[in-house]
């Protein structure tokens, strides 16, 4: 999964448009994009969207944060639509995942869904306190599928006046990004890069996405359909990367009993083999 596109939970029109694109996942949003007065209506519309399944996309629902008191009502309303996963905003750590997992177990059973199949992605850096919980996600639940870092709400939590300049995040946000990446790697789940908010700057989006892929992120959250193709292309392996990966895999296949090999004048070992398989999408 490379691209996860947010869609307002109260806009079937935008959902239909998003469904025509090539995002790997659509996140139907019940949180920030829906005002309080329309939350109940948006739950009903989200259920209809989930049941329509207009394309091959995975369908996630971003519920409201646990501290709002609305999370359980959100889940109860949308689970009959069998979403592939839930996005939990403002997550503080593994205990939050366990709480949502407990609710999902009961709601799956009530909806005739195989228990344990609904995944959870956490937006894991939206408050100052959440940074200190990043180490608690490892082993918290088999449902956990990804950790996403976010900058917009973190800015408010910090009382910051500016997140970035010249297209480069300031140090508190780079710290949150890097720690989220490491927490996801430690928990063996997908690290997901934050949204890009300069909607018409596609060159900047490509640059940021390539930097994310370079550092180890496997997907990016998006807020506009025009960003999908740019992000998907940026996460695709280059011809040179594919050629290198094929050579590494072939070298180890020819020398199955060797832990290290010499290839094009460079030493390679098992981590290189794992990296090569990841590039080619092999297990």
Keywords:
single chain, alpha/beta, 2 domains, 10 helices, 12 strands, 42% helix, globular
Explain this structure.
- With 283 residues, this protein is α/β, with parallel strands linked by helices.
- The chain folds into two domains: 3-235, TIM Barrel; 239-280, no CATH class.
- It has ten helices and twelve strands.
- The strands form three sheets. The chain has an eight-stranded parallel β-barrel with strand order 1-2-3-4-5-6-9-10, surrounded by six helices. Strands 7-8 form a two-stranded antiparallel sheet.
- α7 runs parallel beside α8 and α9 (239-254) crosses α10.
- The protein is globular.
- Its cofactor is Mg(2+).
- This is Citrate lyase subunit beta/citryl-CoA lyase.
Q: Largest sheet at a glance?
A: 8 strands, parallel, barrel
If you average the pLDDT, what whole number results? 94
Instruction: Give a count of the beta strands, DSSP E runs of length 2 or more.
Output: 12
**Cα separation of the termini:** 15 Å
CATH C-level class of the largest domain: Alpha Beta
Which secondary-structure class do the elements indicate? Answer: alpha/beta
Please estimate the helix content. Answer: 40-55%
Query: How many helices does DSSP assign?
Result: 10
- Write down the domain tally: 2
CATH-assigned homologous superfamily of the largest domain: Phosphoenolpyruvate-binding domains
Which CATH architecture of the largest domain is right?
Alpha-Beta Barrel
Radius of gyration: 20 Å
Main-sheet strand order equals 1-2-3-4-5-6-9-10
Strand content: 15-25%
CATH topology of the largest domain: TIM Barrel
Low-confidence region ranges: none
Give the SSE string: EHEHEHEHEEHEEHEHEHHEEH
């Amino acid at each position: 999964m490379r691209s996860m596109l947010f869609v307002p939970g109260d806009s079937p029109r935008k959902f239909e448009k998003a469904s025509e694109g090539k995002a790997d996942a659509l996140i139907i949003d019940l949180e920030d994009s829906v005002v309080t007065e329309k939350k109940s209506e948006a739950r009903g519309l989200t259920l209809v969207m989930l049941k329509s399944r207009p394309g091959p996309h995975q369908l996630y629902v971003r519920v409201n944060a646990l501290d709002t008191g609305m999370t359980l009502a959100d889940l109860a309303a949308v689970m009959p639509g069998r979403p592939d996963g839930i996005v939990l905003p403002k997550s503080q750590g593994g205990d939050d995942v366990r709480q949502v997992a407990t609710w999902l177990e009961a709601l799956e059973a009530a909806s005739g869904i195989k228990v344990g199949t609904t995944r959870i992605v956490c937006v894991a850096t939206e408050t100052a306190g959440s940074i200190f919980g990043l180490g608690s996600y490892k082993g918290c639940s088999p449902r956990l599928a990804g950790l996403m870092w976010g900058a917009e709400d973190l800015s408010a939590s910090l009382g910051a006046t500016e997140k970035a300049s010249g297209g480069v995040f300031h140090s508190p946000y780079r710290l949150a990004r890097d720690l989220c990446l490491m927490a996801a790697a430690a928990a063996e789940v997908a690290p997901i890069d934050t949204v890009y908010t300069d909607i018409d700057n596609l060159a900047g989006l490509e640059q940021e996405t390539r930097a994310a892929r370079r550092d180890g992120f496997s997907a990016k959250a998006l807020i506009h359909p025009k960003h999908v193709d740019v992000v998907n292309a940026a996460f695709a392996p280059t011809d040179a990367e594919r050629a290198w990966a094929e050579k590494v895999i072939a070298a180890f296949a020819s020398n199955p009993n060797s832990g290290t090999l010499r290839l094009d004048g460079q030493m390679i070992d098992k981590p290189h083999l794992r990296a090569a398989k990841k590039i080619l999408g092999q297990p």
